Structures are given as structure tokens and as C-alpha cells.
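Could you please consider the sequence and fold following this short note?
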Amino acid sequence: MLFSTRASVTSDTPQGGQLAGAEDPGIHEKGGWGTDRAVGRRLRVFWRRFSRSRSAVLGLGVVFFFTLVTLVATWVAPHDPTALIAQPFISPGPRYPLGTDNLGRDVLSGVVYGARVSLAVGFLAAATSTLIGVIVGAISGYLGGVTDALLMRLTELFQVLPRFFLALLVVALAGPGIGKIVFVIAILSWPPMARLVRAEFLSLREREFVEAARALGVATPTIIFRDILPNALPSVIVAGSLDIAQAILLEAGLSFFGLGDPNLTSWGGMLNNALAFLRTAWWMPTFPGLGIFLTVLGFNLLGDGLNDALNPRLRSR
């Protein structure tokens, strides 16, 4: 679903996806979304379109739930996730709802704190890769020519690299750490965003409002980031929500192979610890795995809903 949704963002629109901002009259005025009243009206229209899809609302609810859990983890988790608080291998019950692991640690506390790590990595890595992709794609799409050719060759170089195995190699050599994991995921994830933003800029740079800005002598950085970029944001938002899901999966994979931060409890690390006890303690891999599944599913459904609400070609469906 990750790749099919991103494909729909680009294939349903001319030259890589011209979404809501570029189609709505008046959005080009003053390089933004107009007055506060206009913003409120647009948000209400957006919510009506978004809420038509039950799966999108479900995805939003799942993402909101796990985000809330990460914010109140200190108060929600009954114990320290690293504390040995009971006998090992206690099955789920009234006292320990998700049971205990092989060392007597509370699985529920581990799942709650693991959500904090997974979402933090997902949001930070996606934000960093989006920032890099937007800058590269905007400069490439607007300037064109030799600059475009060079930046796209660089983008293709990063895009053909095997992300997961390269991430394994880099983290293994550099050593585990949450900051290093975020950096590696971001550096390996920006090319699709850059190509998407480039396609948006290729479509928008010939519009009348851009020509008028050039005629008035507006500086190139101002045209790029004030006049064109706001109109490309809808597709960036859709792709960014999917990047979060990919980052969560990549972090879980690294932690599963023992390359996560040893000082933090993560879902992938819990799965790694449970690998030797699949038959004797089914609850140890089940609940962190379920957390990964639901979170990634939530962001995918959210991305689908955002695409349906922001893509003008899908509004009449």
C-alpha cells in the first residue's frame, strides 16, 4: 500500500501530481491560502472530503491513539519497561495485562515506551527526508537545465541503493544510537520526495502567477518558497505521511537485528528478544508486532485519505 498510494499521487495528476492547491482559484494570491476566513472554509471542505472515507478516519484515529500514548507514556505505563518486576513468562492476566517477558519485565510497559521510540524515529526521519527532498526537488524543478540534470542524477544514485541493507551496514559501522538511526533513514529516504516535488514545480513554474512574479523582479528564492511551494504542499503532505510509516518499519527492522539504541525500549528490540521464545511465550512477539502493524496501517490509511481529499481528480468520486 505504501508504494501504490505514492504512485496514485503522481499518476493521477499531470506531470507528477498537481493537487488541490494548484487547482483552486485564489490560492495563488499573495502566495498562500488567502484570509483566515478562506482558510477556515478550505479546512471545512477538506474535512468533509476526508471524512467520507471510513478507512481514512480509522487511520487518523489509530495515528492519534498511538501519538497520544507516546505523549502520556510516563503515566500510562504501569512500570519501568526495564525493571524486573515479576516472575518471568507470566501469561497475560488481570495483574499483567500483556504478561511478562523472559526477564520478568512488564510487556505492556515495553509496548507503551516502544511506541514513543517508533513514532519519534518515524516523525523525525520523515521530517528530515521531506526537508531534503523538498529543497532538492524545488531547486531542480524550477531552475531546470544543467542544475536539474545534476540533481536528478544524484537523486537516482541514492534511489537505486538498497536502503535496508545499506542502513544495516552504516549503523553497524557507526554504532547504535537513536540519532544515527534517524540520520541514516532520512539520508536514504529523500529521493522519492525530491522527484515528486520536482514534478510539481515543472507543472507550476509556467503558471501565470509565477510569470507575473518574474516580471515584477521577485527574487528566485522568494518565488520558489513563497509562491510555488505552498501550491505543492498537498502532495508533499500525502507523501510525507507515507514516509513516516516506512521509517517506522525501517527502524523496527534495524532494532530487530540488534542495531537499535540499547538504552531505549523499542518494538523491534522486543521482537528480537522474543525470537527465542516464540513457542513458550506467544505474547512476547505478538503485542509489539501488533503495535508495528497497527501504526503502519494507520499511516497508510491516513495517507490514502489525504490523497483522496487533496487530489482534485478524485473529488468527484
